[in-house]
């Protein structure tokens, strides 16, 4: 069974840092691009970051550029999001999502998300 | 990276068809064939239902179809069923390895 499990969320003060992790199972993690998408409860989806299968392609939303860093460890089947200089408007549920291809295209499998509260 | 424009809500009766529009610009929807659509039920993670404008992932019923004309993409759901009641989001590649979502559309099945 394909599964993505996010962890690392929690309550953090403005200006502090937090590292989210996403552990994958049930598929060959290193064959696919991966993404982070966030959602404020009751609001819409916001794309945050993307990383290709080999980390050659990386992209960030303007709202997080310079503050967030995405990375992956294919040997550990893991995706990470290092978040620094956190702001109250970063408060959201953060989902990791698997792409349908090695290079970014669309998000075909999602985790259940981890909540980040900046206050 | 401005959000794509979707209607806030649409509705239809069981068996009918509904179409949800997603309007962007030539820098996103109009410029690339990387438009995808997601269905999200309350409290659940989103689910991919259309990618590359009109392709359906395995397991998605053919009642769901996608298209694009110029800067506007559309999702059509035919033969509406009660379980189709959910929020729907479009998403487009916007160049320079960035993506943008629409604001979401709530579909009510009356």
Summarize this structure briefly.
The complex is a heterodimer of chains A (119) and B (110). Chain A is mostly beta strands and 119 residues long. Chain A is 0% helix and 51% strand.
Features:
heterodimer, A: 119 residues, mainly beta, 7-stranded mixed sheet, 4-stranded antiparallel sheet, 11 strands, globular, B: mainly beta, 3-stranded antiparallel sheet, 44% strand
Structure report:
Chain A has 119 residues and is mostly beta strands. In chain A, 0% of the residues lie in helices and 51% in strands. Chain A contains no helices and eleven strands. Chain A is globular. The termini of chain A are far apart. The model of chain A has no long low-confidence stretch (mean pLDDT 96). Chain B has strands at 9-12, 18-23, 35-40, 47-50, 64-69, 72-77, 86-93, 99-101, 105-109. Chain B is mainly beta. In chain B, strand 7 and strand 8 form a beta hairpin. Helices cover 0% and strands 44% of the residues of chain B. The relative contact order of chain B is 0.34. The mean pLDDT of chain B is 96.
Map the helices and strands.
The complex is a heterodimer of chains A (119) and B (110).
Chain A: E1 3-7, E2 10-12, E3 18-25, E4 34-39, E5 45-51, E6 58-60, E7 68-73, E8 78-83, E9 92-99, E10 107-110, E11 114-118
Parallel strand pairs in A: 2-11
Antiparallel strand pairs in A: 1-3, 3-8, 4-5, 4-9, 5-6, 7-8, 9-10, 9-11
Chain B: E1 9-12, E2 18-23, E3 35-40, E4 47-50, E5 64-69, E6 72-77, E7 86-93, E8 99-101, E9 105-109
């Amino acid at each position: 069974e394909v599964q993505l499990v996010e962890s690392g969320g929690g309550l953090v003060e403005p200006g502090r840092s937090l590292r989210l992790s996403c552990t994958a199972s049930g598929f060959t993690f290193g064959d696919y691009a991966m993404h982070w998408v966030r959602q404020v409860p009751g609001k819409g989806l916001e794309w945050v970051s993307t990383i290709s299968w080999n980390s050659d392609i990386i992209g960030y939303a303007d709202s997080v550029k310079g503050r967030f860093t995405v990375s992956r460890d294919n040997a550990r089947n893991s995706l990470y999001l290092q978040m620094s200089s956190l702001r109250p408007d970063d408060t959201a549920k953060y989902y990791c999502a698997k792409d349908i291809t090695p290079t970014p295209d669309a998000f075909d499998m999602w985790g259940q998300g981890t909540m980040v509260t900046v206050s | 990276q401005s959000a794509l424009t979707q209607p806030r809500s649409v509705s239809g009766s069981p068996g009918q068809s509904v179409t949800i529009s997603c309007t962007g610009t030539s820098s996103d929807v109009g410029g690339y064939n990387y438009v995808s659509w997601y269905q999200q039920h309350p409290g659940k993670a989103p689910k991919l239902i259309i990618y590359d404008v009109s392709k359906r992932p395995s397991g998605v019923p053919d009642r769901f179809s996608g298209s694009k004309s110029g800067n506007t993409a559309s999702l059509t759901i035919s033969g509406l069923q009660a379980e189709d009641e959910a929020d729907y989001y479009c998403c487009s590649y916007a160049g320079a390895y960035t993506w943008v979502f629409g604001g979401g559309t709530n579909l009510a099945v009356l």
